[in-house]
Design brief:
Blueprint: H1 3-10, H2 16-40, H3 44-51, H4 56-67, H5 82-88
Amino acid sequence: MSLPVILYITSFEIATHFIIMLVVWIDMLTTPLLIEVSYLACNKRNLNTLFSFGTLLEILMYLRLKSSRRVEPAPMQLYKNYVFYQCISF
């Protein structure tokens, strides 16, 4: 976290432990994001994959359409296991 942001937060006379917790939470949220973005931007293939998704609106529409599909259990089919019956029949 940058020094100007920390100084801005401390100017509100907020408790020190709250500021520390805020900085820790911001750090916990931004570090994985930074790692993922730097990995995706490391070569041309990953950049093409990243930009092939289109705009944020297209991604959200795709996720919405995908989540609206219903999933139902398959009808139960009973099969006799002839190998099992042959093994236990005397």
